[in-house]
């Protein structure tokens, strides 16, 4: 039986993370990785301004959309959309909204909007809460490695 790239799983040793390979950006893939935008919508449609203003993830709406960096960002209100449009770098998640743990390891992975943390004013998202706990165990190191890896990953 032939395995397709989408049918294979990639497993992180020692973690409870199994991701379809098709969801990852691997070296040499040649795809732009600026923003995690499944179906063209950033951060699974979550209002990224709400993480700052309400301290929690809030579902956005297509009625309050804004285009930035090749993706459509959804917001829960016109006020949040306008706040983002005025200063997107303030609200946009680190690493284009890809999993912070994965970027610290040199690849990208999808995120769960409920697995988040704001550190020094930057929003970091992770694959799930289990992976987030691993990322939080060494946040300074993981952030430093993610910051070092991101320019190379984003340039692919």
What does this protein structure show overall?
The radius of gyration is 15 Å and the shape is globular. The chain has helices at residues 48-53, 78-86, 88-91, 100-105, 129-136, 139-154; strands at 9-11, 18-20, 37-38, 41-42, 46-47, 58-59, 61-68, 71-75, 112-119, 122-126. The protein has 156 residues and is of the alpha+beta class. Residues 1-32 have low confidence and may be disordered. The protein has a two-stranded antiparallel ribbon. A two-stranded antiparallel sheet has the order 3-4. It has 6 helices and 10 strands; from the N terminus they run βββββαβββαααββαα.
Comma- or semicolon-separated keywords:
26% strand, two-stranded antiparallel sheet, 156 residues, alpha+beta
Largest sheet: 2 strands, antiparallel
Secondary-structure element pattern, one letter each: EEEEEHEEEHHHEEHH
Structural class: alpha+beta
Oligomer: single chain
User: Strand percentage, roughly?
Assistant: 25-35%
Average pLDDT confidence is: 85
* Helix share bin: 25-40%
Number of strands: 10
Distance between the termini: 31 Å
Shape: globular
Q: Give the count of structural domains.
A: 1
- Whole-number radius of gyration? 15 Å
Strand arrangement in the largest pleated sheet: 1-2
């Amino acid at each position: 039986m032939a395995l397709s790239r989408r049918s294979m799983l990639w497993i992180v040793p020692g973690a409870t993370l199994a991701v379809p390979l098709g969801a990852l950006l691997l070296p040499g893939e040649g795809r732009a990785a600026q923003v995690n935008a499944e179906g063209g919508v950033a951060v699974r449609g979550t209002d990224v301004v709400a993480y700052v203003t309400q301290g929690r993830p809030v579902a956005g709406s297509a009625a309050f959309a804004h285009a930035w960096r090749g993706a459509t960002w959804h917001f829960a209100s016109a006020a949040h959309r306008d706040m983002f449009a005025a200063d997107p770098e303030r609200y946009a998640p680190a690493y284009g909204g890809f999993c912070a743990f994965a970027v610290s390891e040199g690849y990208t992975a999808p995120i769960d909007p409920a697995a988040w943390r704001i550190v020094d004013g930057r929003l970091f998202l992770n694959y799930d809460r289990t992976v987030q706990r691993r990322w939080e165990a060494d946040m300074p190191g993981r952030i430093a490695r993610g910051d070092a890896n991101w320019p190379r990953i984003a340039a692919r």
